[in-house]
Amino acid sequence: MDRSKELRLNDQLFVSWAKPHKGKPVTKQRLSHWIVEAIALAYRSQNLQAPLGLRAHSTRGLATSWALFKGVSIQDICAAASWSSPLTFVRFYRLDVSAPSVARAVLGTLLSRDSTC
Question: Which pTM value belongs to this model?
Answer without folding.
Answer: 0.53
